[in-house]
């Protein structure tokens, strides 16, 4: 049972949350401009690193807010997300 | 009690032990009476009687006896016959004796009782600063220091009293017997309100972020527990810091006939003598690889036993120890090993041979008679919890054991013999230091106290483990009586067989041989198996072989404890509508839809479901029928951007929907697959009321929130679940207009004034405020009447009364399913399964060509425009009475039935229809929309059922019934 830090509610048990997968996979501004392969990448392809991973959680049984954290997938060490860097994408 | 009933009990003047000699307890094992003392375990009471032998072994039926005094016990496993529920496979070494206890010993397999377990099981959820696991000297020291610093401490120990292995020895701390130090510490901890001491408690699991599960046994030691007391409690503990003082387990030695009753761990012999005042044998050979068993020998000698020999694998054991035992009357045989045991059942003698530097047998041999062989193959630090929490272990050749690798992985502090520190002063020093550090890191700055003076403890010198004592006559691959895992009857020969099949990994060998898969999960056998494997593979050390994975639970636990109170009616929350009582009174049969109880049908007299549903369907198509639809999910969507938002969420348009009107909407995932559907009403320019499927309400709200928060935070929209705020009934059928007209006298319900997909707010008879909409999930004229939740019963009452003269018929979900299927209306989750698009359902009309929406881009992906996609169709069995089972496969009629038979699709919904007077079905089938009129087959019970593919709309395809009879 992970201890997840909700930015609004504090440290809570993992059971209060739902996992939201990789963070910062932005919905394309205009999906219809994308070819099938690029749209397929958006839909289906996610990173799966052994190590640092930016990921989303939602506090479903609490404040219902979404947030991002950085988790080491090998050790489950979690720390707050760094601000999004949209310009680098 | 006479000494004849407890011949092996040692006089109190020799050993007081931790027992109460004034209290006799009577128990029965295998039908024989066992009289023990308060403080005994079942095993110590049996040994006091002279009963060392238990049930024979699991595979080979060999005689077996008590081996250990702890949770590593492989042989003395019993089934409890008294108590709430006969519990199987408990080690007799861990069962506290109580009056009236009845048990039978088991040959490695227990039996499940047919009796229901009526005992209570509870759960506790707690937070603390420091958890200390193990109340031996190191654990007590850590708890004392952390608690003195002000930290909240939970101390967990498996046994009834604190002390751990201190209780098995005879050491002094600060000039007094260790038991006095323990007693003072126990009082100090008990008096500190910040400290909770959980005795008779096993830390089962140690998970991420310092989360531990602890099973506390509360009543098993009582002859007559208070009726209100739960038998066990499962503690869920979240700690800031964890100190593991889990101790170490002694391992046996692998030699020929090492399983004979009377072969016992040296530490167990010492424990029985010092803790329980039981001398398991009067003539005992000690066979050891390290110093610790010398204490056993000295204690045996001190209690008056004869020790014919101490057989030590090492060429040069500590001269001081050798001198000590010589002075006490025993002699040490060095560079030697026990190579065989003799005896009918119980051991009567051993044969000893010399060992050379390589571990091969030398020429000389010697024989000793004995009734006990105390063996010590060395010690295994109890690293199970440490490893569970992510810590790695390494082989330490100096202590000859796997010890925690302290850097990285686990955040726990490991102290004492759990990390291979076996001297008492070292254990205390590490405990004090870890307790202080844990308190400091939890915010309570603390310094460790000085370590008190320790006497009577023996410093260890380097051991010489021997993994496989050679057989005198057979090569190792034929050592079929060298037991590695007694509980599994697995031998060295079995391990050779595993490696001869090519296995090298300890994980594979474990599974092939079943070594370490027993009740103790390898606590006794695991490291010996690693050592033997290292020998077989000529590895340099057991560290090269490594260990198997340590998984929870640390000790076996009844599943009832995990269930706790969440069984029977409390298994899952039950949601009922305000009208539930009325459905019960009407004789409804209910079904579970998510957590909701929904009326499935309302049988009358002897009706079965089939008959009831035909009657209910006929009422809805020809008269009037009523259903409780309060369970539908409802979400209010409010804000200036609500129209834009719904346009993006739904496949069809909602921004242009006029206030006062409703529209059916469908939503898809980004992958274009149908997610949910329902009717949404526009209550005001900036306010919609969305309805969802009963089961999909929570999921849809999550879905809306996810898009609002993570993709479109600029949209000014709020979503609120209002499911629980409304009660609703659907009034369906040609006579529904009459009934609703009577219910809502102020409302003009004529077809002209109250059009389809419109809603009006009004006040019902009796002053009930209501919102009435004209929606239909049956194709019939229908109204949905929504009222505030607390008027639900009144609404049902009023509706049934208003329709009484028209024979208004309550109907359930089964009839609702039939009615909608006759019209080809899909149920998301029944006719769809996450691989179905709106286009596959033939619902292109609900897919906007103008605006974008979630999933639209996907609908043009190559895979979603494939011509052979499965599409929704109607299915009519040629035989009008055959009901196709839902899920049936659809295949071509003329293909071979030799598997694999190409599957075209499957049946998603299937019913008897009153209106069609026949059976019918919906299904998904490849190219379905081009195959109308084709006949395909459903293989069913060895025969083929012919089925015609049709349009999914079976009833009233023109839709003329929607507005009811012409004159309203």
- CATH fold field value of the domain at 19-25 and 42-89 in chain A: Folate-binding fold
- Helix percent of chain A reads 10-25%
Q: Per the principal axes of the C-alpha atoms, what is the gross shape of chain B?
A: elongated
Query: Pairing-aware structural class of the strands and helices of chain A?
Result: mainly beta
Looking at the overall shape, the CATH architecture of the domain at 19-25 and 42-89 in chain A is 2-Layer Sandwich
Give the helix/strand layout.
The complex is a heterodimer of chains A (89) and B (968).
Chain A: E1 3-6, E2 10-13, E3 18-22, H1 36-44, E4 52-58, E5 66-72, E6 78-80
Antiparallel strand pairs in A: 1-2, 3-4, 4-5, 5-6
Chain B: E1 20-29, E2 32-38, H1 42-49, E3 53-54, E4 64-65, E5 77-80, E6 90-91, E7 102-105, E8 121-133, H2 137-148, E9 153-156, E10 172-173, E11 176-177, H3 178-191, E12 195-198, E13 201-207, E14 211-217, E15 232-244, E16 248-250, E17 263-265, H4 266-276, E18 284-288, H5 292-302, E19 310-312, H6 319-328, E20 332-333, E21 336-342, E22 349-355, E23 361-369, E24 372-376, E25 379-381, H7 384-388, E26 392-396, E27 401-405, E28 413-414, H8 424-441, E29 454-455, E30 483-485, E31 490-491, H9 492-500, H10 506-513, H11 526-536, H12 542-545, H13 559-563, H14 580-585, E32 589-593, E33 596-601, H15 609-622, E34 625-628, E35 633-638, H16 642-649, E36 662-668, E37 674-684, E38 687-692, H17 697-710, E39 718-721, E40 726-732, H18 736-743, E41 759-764, E42 768-773, E43 782-788, H19 792-802, E44 809-810, H20 813-822, E45 870-877, E46 889-890, E47 905-913, E48 918-926, E49 935-940, E50 943-950
Parallel strand pairs in B: 1-7, 8-9, 8-15, 9-12, 15-28, 17-24, 18-19, 18-24, 19-20, 34-44
Antiparallel strand pairs in B: 1-2, 3-4, 5-6, 5-7, 10-11, 10-29, 13-14, 14-15, 16-25, 21-22, 22-23, 26-27, 30-31, 32-33, 34-40, 35-38, 35-39, 36-37, 37-38, 40-43, 41-42, 42-43, 45-48, 45-50, 46-47, 47-48, 49-50
Helix pairs in contact in B: 2-3, 2-8, 4-5, 5-6, 9-10, 9-11, 15-20
Organism (chain A): Actinopolyspora alba
GO biological process, one term (chain A): tetrahydrofolate metabolic process
Protein name (chain A): Sarcosine oxidase subunit delta
């Amino acid at each position: 049972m992970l201890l997840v830090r909700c930015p609004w509610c504090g440290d809570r048990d993992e059971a209060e949350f739902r996992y939201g997968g990789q963070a910062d996979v932005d919905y394309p501004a205009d999906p219809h401009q994308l070819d099938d392969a690029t749209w397929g990448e958006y839909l289906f392809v996610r990173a799966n690193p052994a190590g640092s991973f930016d990921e989303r959680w939602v506090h479903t049984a609490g404040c219902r807010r979404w947030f991002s954290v950085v988790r080491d997938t090998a050790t489950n060490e979690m720390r707050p997300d760094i601000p999004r860097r949209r310009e680098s994408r | 009690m006479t000494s004849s009933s407890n011949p092996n009990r040692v006089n109190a003047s020799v050993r007081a032990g931790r027992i109460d000699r004034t209290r006799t307890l009577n128990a029965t094992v295998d039908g024989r009476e066992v009289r023990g003392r308060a403080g005994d375990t079942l095993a110590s009471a049996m040994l006091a009687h002279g009963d060392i032998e238990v049930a024979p072994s699991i595979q080979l039926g060999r005689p077996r006896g008590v081996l250990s005094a702890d949770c590593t016990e492989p042989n003395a496993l019993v089934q409890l016959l008294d108590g709430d529920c006969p519990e199987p496979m408990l080690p007799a070494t861990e069962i506290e004796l109580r009056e009236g206890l009845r048990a039978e010993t088991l040959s490695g397999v227990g039996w499940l009782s047919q009796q229901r377990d009526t005992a209570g099981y509870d759960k506790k959820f707690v937070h603390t600063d420091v958890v200390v696991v193990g109340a031996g000297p190191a654990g007590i020291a850590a708890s004392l220091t952390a608690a003195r610093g002000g930290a909240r401490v939970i101390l967990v120990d498996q046994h009834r009293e604190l002390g751990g292995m201190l209780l098995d020895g005879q050491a002094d701390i600060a000039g007094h017997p260790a038991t006095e130090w323990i007693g003072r510490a126990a009082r100090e901890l008990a008096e500190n309100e910040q400290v909770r001491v959980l005795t008779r408690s096993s830390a089962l699991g140690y998970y991420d972020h310092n989360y531990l599960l602890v099973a506390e046994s509360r009543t098993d030691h009582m002859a007559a527990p208070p009726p209100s007391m739960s038998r066990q409690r499962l503690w869920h503990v979240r700690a800031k810091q964890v100190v593991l003082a889990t101790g170490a387990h002694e391992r046996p030695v692998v030699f020929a006939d090492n399983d004979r009753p009377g072969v016992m761990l040296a530490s167990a012999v010492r424990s029985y003598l010092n803790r329980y005042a039981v001398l398991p044998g009067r003539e005992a050979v000690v066979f050891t690889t390290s110093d610790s068993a010398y204490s056993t020998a000295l204690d045996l000698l001190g209690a008056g036993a004869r020790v014919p020999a101490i057989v030590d694998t090492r060429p040069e054991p500590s001269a001081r120890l050798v001198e000590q035992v010589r002075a006490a009357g025993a002699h040490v045989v060095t560079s030697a090993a026990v190579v065989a045991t003799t005896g009918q059942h119980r051991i009567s003698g051993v044969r000893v041979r010399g060992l050379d530097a390589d571990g091969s047998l030398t020429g000389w041999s010697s024989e000793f008679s004995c009734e006990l062989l105390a063996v010590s193959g060395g010690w295994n630090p109890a690293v199970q919890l440490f490893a569970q929490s992510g810590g790695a272990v390494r082989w330490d050749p100096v202590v000859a054991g796997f010890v925690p690798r302290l850097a990285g992985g686990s955040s726990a502090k490991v102290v004492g013999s759990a990390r291979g520190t076996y001297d008492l002063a070292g254990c205390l020093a590490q405990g004090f230091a870890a307790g202080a550090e844990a308190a400091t890191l939890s915010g309570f700055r603390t310094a460790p106290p000085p370590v008190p003076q320790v006497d009577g403890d023996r410093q260890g010198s380097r051991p010489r483990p021997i993994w496989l004592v050679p057989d005198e006559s057979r090569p190792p691959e034929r050592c079929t009586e060298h037991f590695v895992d007694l509980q599994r009857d697995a031998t060295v020969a079995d391990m050779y067989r595993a490696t001869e099949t090519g296995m090298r990994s300890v994980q594979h060998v474990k599974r092939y041989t079943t070594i370490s898969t027993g009740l103790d999960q390898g606590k006794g056998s695991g490291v010996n198996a690693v050592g033997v494997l290292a020998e077989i593979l000529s590895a340099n050390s057991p560290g090269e072989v490594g260990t198997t994975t340590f998984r929870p639970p640390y000790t076996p636990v009844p599943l009832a404890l995990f269930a706790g109170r969440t069984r029977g009616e409390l298994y899952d929350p039950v949601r009922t509508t305000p009208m539930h009582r009325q459905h019960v009174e009407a004789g409804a049969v209910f079904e579970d839809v998510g957590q909701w109880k929904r009326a499935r049908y309302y049988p009358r007299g002897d009706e079965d479901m089939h008959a009831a549903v035909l009657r209910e369907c006929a009422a809805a198509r020809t008269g009037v029928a009523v259903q409780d639809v309060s369970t539908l999910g409802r979400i209010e969507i409010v804000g200036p951007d609500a129209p834009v938002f719904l346009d993006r969420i739904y496949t069809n348009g909602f921004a242009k929907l006029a206030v006062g009107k409703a529209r059916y909407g469908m939503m898809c995932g980004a992958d274009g697959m149908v997610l949910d559907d329902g009717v949404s009403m526009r209550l005001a320019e900036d306010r919609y009321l969305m309805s969802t499927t009963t089961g999909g309400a929570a999921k849809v709200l999550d879905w809306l929130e996810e898009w609002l928060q993570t993709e479109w935070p600029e949209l000014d929209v709020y979503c609120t679940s209002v499911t629980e705020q409304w009660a609703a009934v659907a009034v369906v059928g040609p006579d529904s207009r009459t009934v609703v007209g009577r219910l809502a006298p102020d409302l003009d319900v004529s077809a002209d004034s109250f059009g389809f997909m419109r809603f009006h707010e009004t006040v019902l008879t009796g002053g009930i405020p209501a919102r009435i909409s004209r929606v239909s999930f049956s194709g019939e004229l229908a109204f949905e009447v929504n009222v505030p939740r607390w008027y639900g019963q009144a609404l049902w009452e009023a509706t049934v009364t208003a329709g009484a003269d028209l024979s208004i018929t309550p109907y359930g979900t089964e009839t609702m399913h039939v009615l909608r299927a006759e019209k080809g209306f899909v149920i998301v989750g029944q006719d769809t399964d996450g691989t179905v698009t709106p286009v596959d359902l033939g619902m292109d009309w609900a897919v906007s060509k103008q605006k974008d929406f979630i999933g639209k881009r996907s609908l043009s992906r190559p895979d979603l425009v494939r011509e052979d996609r499965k599409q929704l169709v109607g299915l009519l069995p040629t035989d009008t009475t055959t009901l196709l089972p839902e899920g049936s496969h659809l295949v071509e009629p003329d293909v071979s039935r030799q598997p694999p038979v190409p599957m075209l699709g499957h049946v998603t919904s299937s019913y008897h229809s009153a209106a069609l007077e026949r059976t019918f079905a919906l299904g998904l089938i490849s190219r379905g929309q081009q195959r109308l009129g084709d006949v395909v087959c459903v293989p069913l019970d060895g025969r083929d059922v012919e089925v015609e593919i049709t349009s999914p709309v079976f009833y009233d395809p023109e839709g003329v019934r929607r507005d009811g009879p012409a004159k309203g």
